[in-house]
Amino acid sequence: MTSPIYTKFLSVAEPDLSELEERYVLEAVRSGWISSIGAFIDRFEQSFAKFCDAKHAVAVANGTVALHLALVAKGIGPGDEVLIPDLTFVATGSAVRHAGAEPVLVDVRPDDWCMDPDLVENAISPRTKAIIPVHLFGHPARMNEIRGIAQRNGLFVLEDAAEAHGATYHGKPVGSLGDAAAFSFYGNKLVTTGEGGAITTNDAEFAARVRFLKDHAMSKERRYYHPDVGYNYRMTNLQAALGCAQLERYEQIRRSKDRLLNWYREAMQGLPISLNPIPPNGGAVCWLVAGLLPETTTYAQREGLMHRLRSQHGIDTRPFFVPLSKNPPYANCRRAQESRKSVAEDLAERGICLPSSNSLAQEDVVRIAKCLADELAAIARA
Ligand SMILES: *Cc1c(COP(=O)(O)O)cnc(C)c1O
After folding, report:
1. The model scores a pTM over 0.85
2. CA of 291 to the centre of ligand 1 (A)
């Protein structure tokens, strides 16, 4: 076996952890409060609500159940339709299906990769109950347009903010832009608790319903009396301890990520790869550094490029999400798109996520850009 020529494997995402996370988790362990009651849970929920400029935050087990629980708490279920973007992580779709409702897949925009509001109005049917805009890769969706359409049609707006902690839209943080929002704190997200999630809202009654359902729907007045069928969707105090440290360190985490994206923009100047879109009014965060290869790149060329980066150069990359409409359980969903080949499909075929860990050095980014330039030159010659 020949030894690789690279010395350091550059993974797509590693959590940004410090001694503070270590200290808080140890504190939780030593306190004995390791399950879903404890001081860190309360503190995390309060800090996170404040972070999102929302009145309430309810911590849950992960982002997928946050989406599911928000739909169920709103009473959305069998016979109802929910509009979601075609380009998203599968959890947006599976949460709708778990609720017993039917996803309707709305195409995304080429300029921000998020749900296209121009396609939303026509996608609404008498059965439509909710819209879930996704702030993909940290870029806020066009919430003003989406909220306007929702208001005119009496629809519930649930932000899927799993990839956009701390992003703002016209100066307001995501998590406060709809009727409710779902967040994920999975290990590769901007703020992590290992596994975890949260629902934010300004509606006290809705927050109380979410709290009730996430803990077995047990009556507040009478222990072990359950007027509804609930769930165990609780987060643990151990996870919340990690989350408290992450929120305290958010500005630091965000600054490192912004610096990383800037290094990429600088190193890749002149390359025919467009990186994370920049909103006209700012406010995006960088979850993963994501790039679009030139329009002429075929699916096979992208797969070859990704394979060689990994095997020859130790550079880990990921393709964009496969559009939901290209996954068997969602292939027959009703769809709203302009042309036969959707924008989602085009982006999905030539998009790649690049190493995005805060531990990367500028010289790593320069090396990645050089390898990409060589690869693209080879593709152009072929
Ligand atoms: C990560 C993610 C989720 C799901 O979160 P989990 O915590 O992994 O369940 C949902 N939606 C989007 C857009 C995501 O990126």
Report:
1. yes
2. 20
